[in-house]
């Protein structure tokens, strides 16, 4: 998601050639905003509109690598060295607690309270993703949530499965019809995408990894039931035999070739299925993920924005966040960039509704509202690794769900609680 390299030069020029963080003639303040690569012109427009409203401020844009892992490591290197090169930066939803614990972020609570920001108007799961140890460290920018896609030419809207049991039944029944080979496809490879599928399944049956206090509570009936359902699907004949090697990329290919009836994917999948060359153009519907005994749960994805603890211009940095992550900025991101807002009132905005069919789709909005963050913990990378290994073994048929859950409980307690 990135901006043209020419933008970096032009924005630097806007700073009048001053050093980062310096105040020039007339009290001008230059701050640096960093985010990953942006293929749209959204970032450029956000900065232009902000500078129009704040003529005393110049924003220098620093483009980070498109690989989120590389960006993460570069941020860690900068911030661990107490660098003030960057003032404002975007974070993956799973980084907030880690960066807060490490001392890289400035708490935002006093800014939020001073300006009367109503966090209840934002996607609850996204707000929670930025909260750690009783403080709000980041503000939600845009959201991703797991969704169920279905073939409209094969399944009527009123017949879209509402439960995981119904999905498995229809997947088995419909596979092979109208040139399909599979009833359902999801991300089963041992990587972060598998964690998302796991969180969704166990959440649907009442399972959780951590409670609100950060205590490990994964060993529960709901977790076992959700993992059992995930394993059942992975071991079935209605999903690809190589499902344990499938990521979002393979999911896109399988579905665009018309090989599957249903798929679990992120919001971008909808537009991709409408591209030239897709065999399912105009044939794809979207719905919230199916329910289990405890309802429907979608894994939260997306990005947040925070302030570098070492920034010399925290007040000005907050003004940029307030604009970008508020109603005006998120509307620009939605209309020009197709990014799903975390500011819920925008789903009633006519311009936003016109920007993407998803933004006026009640099932999509339901999925966004039900999205839950992955475990909010500074130890998340280790938590994810443990879950990936144990869930991967289980869906491959190498381990029983109840045994895998007990082992995850033991390993996670050592990492999270030191027990």
TrEMBL record:
It holds the Pfam family SBP_bac_1. This is ABC transporter substrate-binding protein. The keyword rRNA-binding does not apply. GO terms for biological process: maltodextrin transmembrane transport; maltose transport. GO terms for molecular function: maltose binding. One of its GO terms (cellular component) is ATP-binding cassette (ABC) transporter complex, substrate-binding subunit-containing. It comes from Paludifilum halophilum. Belongs to the bacterial solute-binding protein 1 family. The lineage of its organism: Bacteria, Bacillati, Bacillota, Bacilli, Bacillales. The keyword Transmembrane helix does not apply. Keywords: Signal, Transport. Gene3D superfamilies: Periplasmic binding protein-like II (3.40.190.10). It comes from the Bacteria.
């Amino acid at each position: 998601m990135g901006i043209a390299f020419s933008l970096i030069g032009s924005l630097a020029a806007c700073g009048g050639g001053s050093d980062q963080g310096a105040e020039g003639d007339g009290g001008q303040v230059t701050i640096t905003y960093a985010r990953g690569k942006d293929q749209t012109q959204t970032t450029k427009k956000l900065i232009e509109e902000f500078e129009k409203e704040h003529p005393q401020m110049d924003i220098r844009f620093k483009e980070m690598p498109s690989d989120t892992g590389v960006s993460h490591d570069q941020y860690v290197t900068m911030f661990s060295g107490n660098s003030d090169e960057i003032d404002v930066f975007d974070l993956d939803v799973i980084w907030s607690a880690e960066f807060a614990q490490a001392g890289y972020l400035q708490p935002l609570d006093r800014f939020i309270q001073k300006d009367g920001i109503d966090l209840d108007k934002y996607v609850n799961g996204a707000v929670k993703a930025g909260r750690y140890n009783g403080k709000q460290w980041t503000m939600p920018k845009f959201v991703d949530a797991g969704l169920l896609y279905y073939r409209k030419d094969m399944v009527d809207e009123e017949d879209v499965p509402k439960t995981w049991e119904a999905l498995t039944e229809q997947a088995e029944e419909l596979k092979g019809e109208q040139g399909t080979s599979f009833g359902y496809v999801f991300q089963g490879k041992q990587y972060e995408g598998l964690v998302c599928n796991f969180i969704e399944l166990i959440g649907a049956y009442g399972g959780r990894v951590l409670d609100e206090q950060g205590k490990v509570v994964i060993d529960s009936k709901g977790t076992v039931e959700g993992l059992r359902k995930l394993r059942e699907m992975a071991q079935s004949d209605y999903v690809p035999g190589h499902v344990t090697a499938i990521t979002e990329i393979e999911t896109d290919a399988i579905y665009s070739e018309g090989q599957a009836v249903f798929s679990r994917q992120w919001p971008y999948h909808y537009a991709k299925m409408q591209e030239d060359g897709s065999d399912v153009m105009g044939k794809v519907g979207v719905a919230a993920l199916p329910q289990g005994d405890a309802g429907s749960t979608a894994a939260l994805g997306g990005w947040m924005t925070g302030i570098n603890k070492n920034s010399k211009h925290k007040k000005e940095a907050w003004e940029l966040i307030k604009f970008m992550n508020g109603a005006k900025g998120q509307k620009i991101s939605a209309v020009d960039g197709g990014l799903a807002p975390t500011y819920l009132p925008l789903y009633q905005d006519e311009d936003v509704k016109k920007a993407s069919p998803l933004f006026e789709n009640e099932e999509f909005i339901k999925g966004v509202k039900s999205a839950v963050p992955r475990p909010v913990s500074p130890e998340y990378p280790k938590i994810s690794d443990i879950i990936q290994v144990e869930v991967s073994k289980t869906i491959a048929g190498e381990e029983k769900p109840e045994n895998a859950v007990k082992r995850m409980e033991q390993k996670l307690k050592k990492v999270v609680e030191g027990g």
